[in-house]
Specification:
Enolpyruvate_Tfrase_dom; cell cycle; 416 residues; four-stranded mixed β-sheet; UDP-n-acetylglucosamine1-carboxyvinyl-transferase, Chain; 2 domains; EC 2.5.1.7; cell division; UDP-N-acetylglucosamine 1-carboxyvinyltransferase; alpha/beta
């Protein structure tokens, strides 16, 4: 098992490129079950979850290759079972449920368990598919769904679930009849999936709004498609620039998709400017504490909560962070306290009082975004920080230490 060692206190300066979005690539890869003919994807990040998804596609009957940041996939002989051995390591695996039901009329997918940041039940997915004509049994930890043929339906989600919206969207593309998805998730990654499906011949409108309309077609065809850049990776680099008092040019930055993050960071005292080649970011004087509430897109993203909390720890004054998406997403708090942070928790609210500095110490990552927050904290800390359990980090950040070293950071990987 690896750990990341950081000698902090060095301002980061120079250009740093954002990789393709993991959260966009995973559902698009699973949507490759649907088209007849080859699919070619570019800007795919080389991450553990991507390799896991490609293994799952192989089990489900797709022939894939992964060269550089390019993936090709073609359907050979579709199978209907997603085994627990893969689903337990990556919750996004449940997104094969919709495509398999639509294509084969049957799917057997291992029931995902919980994770460190809280439970993410799939009941909203199943209720939607029942409205489309599927029936489900739960046997030996597997969801077993069947239908004669999925029918178009009017789906209303009680909560704008990203995974539920993506699962139903994929299934609806080749369902019999038209579908309407109300209270749909509006995240850019949902839009990217819709744009991929449209490139394959799907008839979709309203993606990016709370009402998505899908006209079912008989089949989809293969296509060439480029995965969008990762907005959370870009946001993490914005925080790193400000916290180390450096200046980064973030290349291939999805600036528009980061509106809520940009708004809050500017209020905290960060200067940002779009220019040819990317977005330039630096601190604009002293940083100040603010109040943040995580919400579904276009609100402030829960995936940037830990990074902004880390930034608030070294800001003047105090601020609060309310976590409204996941019930257990403050596991990084005690690790930040080990570095010198002043944070008090009450339920789903964190009160953060700014301190003068972080001092390096051994810390342990509990999930992907907590890992990122601890790395950023280590970059700003005086002395040596060791971030343990960075296998979490490898799930969502491609070549992170190499990219950070390229802009002046002193960071390397060691065996624990």
């Amino acid at each position: 098992m690896d750990k990341l060692v950081i000698e902090g206190g060095v301002p980061l300066n120079g250009p740093i490129r954002v990789s393709g979005s993991k959260n966009a690539a995973l559902p698009i890869l699973l949507a490759c079950i649907l088209p007849e003919g080859p699919v070619s994807l570019t800007n795919v990040p080389r991450l553990r979850d991507i390799h896991t998804t490609l293994k799952l596609l192989g089990i489900l009957g797709c022939e894939t290759s992964f060269d550089g940041n390019n993936v090709t996939s073609i359907v050979k002989d579709i199978k209907i079972e997603a085994p627990y051995e893969l689903v337990k390591t990556m919750r996004a695996s449940v997104l094969c449920l919709g495509p398999l039901l639509a294509l084969k009329g049957e799917a057997k997918v291992a029931l995902p368990g919980g994770c460190a940041i809280g439970a993410r039940p799939v009941d909203l997915h199943l209720t939607a598919f029942e409205q489309m004509g599927a029936t489900f049994d739960l046997n030996s930890g597997y969801i077993h769904g069947r239908c004669d043929q999925l029918k178009g339906a009017h789906i209303h989600f009680d909560f704008p679930t990203v995974g539920g919206t993506q699962n139903v969207l994929m299934a609806a593309t080749i369902a019999d009849g038209d579908s309407i998805i109300e209270n749909a998730a509006r995240e850019p990654e949902v839009v990217d999936l819709a744009n991929f499906l449209i490139a394959c011949g799907a008839k979709i409108s309203g993606h990016g709004t709370s009402i998505i309309k899908v006209e079912g077609v008989s089949s989809l065809k293969g296509c060439d498609y480029k995965i969008m850049p990762d907005r959370i990776e870009a946001g993490t680099y914005m925080v790193a620039a400000a916290m180390t008092d450096g200046e980064l040019l973030i290349e291939d930055c999805p600036f528009k998709e980061l509106d809520a993050v940009v708004y809050k960071m500017r209020k905290m005292g960060v200067w940002m400017q779009e220019e040819e080649g990317g977005v330039r970011v630096r601190r604009d004087g002293d940083m100040v504490g603010i109040d943040i509430t995580t919400q579904p897109y276009p609100g402030f993203p829960t995936d940037m909560q830990a990074q902004l909390m880390t930034m608030m720890c070294l800001s003047n004054g105090a601020g609060t962070i309310q976590e409204k998406i996941f019930e257990n997403r403050f596991m990084h708090v005690q690790e930040l306290v080990r570095l010198g942070a002043d944070i008090k928790l009450k339920g789903r609210t964190a009160m953060v009082r700014g301190v003068e500095k972080f001092t390096g110490a051994p810390v342990m990552a509990s999930d992907l975004r907590a890992s990122a927050s601890l790395v950023v904290a280590g970059l700003a800390a005086s002395g040596r920080t060791e971030v343990q359990r960075i296998y979490h980090l490898d799930r969502g950040y491609e070549n992170l230490e190499a990219k950070l070293c390229g802009v002046g950071a002193r960071v390397w990987r060691e065996k624990e």
